[in-house]
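Memo to structure team: turn this sequence into structure tokens by end of day. - J.P.
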Amino acid sequence: MIPPRPAALRLWTRVEGIRLPAPPLGLLQWTPDATALAVLVDATHFDGDEVQAVATQIPLASDLPPGSPVFVLGTAVVAARSWRAILGPRRAPVSRAVRCSALLARGYVDIGCARPMPRGDDLAWGWSQAR
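Reply from structure team:
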């Protein structure tokens, strides 16, 4: 599958105080007012393979403008505690099945997933409403 190619992406995450990951799809920076979203899942309190836990971190499709693409990144953040925080957050994979199911649960349509180039980020995506 070929993912949508928005001109800009806004990062959507519950995680605070970490170095932000690079944007996917070859974009050079995050754009705070972009319509398209990329969701970075916080897996600090679960193992990353719980559909409901991932779904609660994705905005409802009905809360976004019609036809907005939302991407869920393939790697979640596991925030470090105490002395381990010096080393930075750990990353944990989130399966495509869990990410796509979470998008479906939040009301997204035309759901897909792929590992697009140039960097090969593993992405799952959906649209806030039929395009």
